[in-house]
Amino acid sequence: MNDQFMQAAIDEAIIGRDEGGIPIGSVLVIDGQIVGRGHNRRVQKGSSVLHAEMDALENAGRLTAAQYGRATLYSTLSPCDMCSGAALLYQIPTIIVGENKTFQGPEKYVRSRGVSLTVLDNETCVELMNAFIAKHPELWNEDIGV
Amino acid sequence: MNDQFMQAAIDEAIIGRDEGGIPIGSVLVIDGQIVGRGHNRRVQKGSSVLHAEMDALENAGRLTAAQYGRATLYSTLSPCDMCSGAALLYQIPTIIVGENKTFQGPEKYVRSRGVSLTVLDNETCVELMNAFIAKHPELWNEDIGV
């Protein structure tokens, strides 16, 4: 797997892990450029809304519909209901997911709304999550609302 | 209409309007108490993710699944895909909506996921949005991704 953008998302996940946070990273790409990058901030900021994808979207700032319409959202983990909803709100046409073995969001629904969603089965992404969940199951459950 | 919590959401919408922002407000209520309140922050913070409901959820801080399971989310406007998704993520069982005439989110899908969603047809909520949309159609379109 040599996609530079998924690697950037993994780099973000590792930054989050090294901050003591939940190791999920994301980047938003438009016209071959990263315009926003982020990682889960639940621990670092006490945030309930800054999942990695939300953090990347927030850091990208206010964009036009035309910009979102050319965007691809990369995430190391299958986007949850909230993050999938954000992609649907802004009509982001393409989502590339590192893995969906440790958690799976509403992928079928997202595809039914016309989004191209691809899962890479990236082993680094799986390992990051498995190591975290084994250490901090309570934090992980909190992050996915269970 | 004399629901104190919808009135609190309307108060938040008016704060947002008076800040020059998009007049949508929200409160999260648990056990008869407001635990988080917020309003749309696109203009005020340059935020693409802090819709009113997201702002209320963020301001409520990190909660447990048991707390979300007793929560009601009030919003002056029908929640968009992102905000609906946040409610689904945290399995908030009840959503009370001021109005859905000026914008309608994925209400049918939200109900299909087991959420009780009630629309009040509150005229103050409609008037706040109509006045804003007439003055700033471009801002409103940006906020709903069109």
Automatic annotation (TrEMBL), chains A, B:
Its EC number is 3.5.4.33. Pathway: Pyrimidine metabolism. Residues 1-117 form the CMP/dCMP-type deaminase domain. It is found in: Cytoplasm. It is an enzyme of class 3 (hydrolase). Its cofactor is Zn(2+). GO terms for biological process: nucleobase-containing small molecule metabolic process; pyrimidine-containing compound metabolic process. GO terms for molecular function: diaminohydroxyphosphoribosylaminopyrimidine deaminase activity; metal ion binding; tRNA-specific adenosine-34 deaminase activity. It holds the Pfam family dCMP_cyt_deam_1. SUPFAM superfamilies: Cytidine deaminase-like (SSF53927). Homodimer. This is tRNA-specific adenosine deaminase. It comes from Stieleria marina.
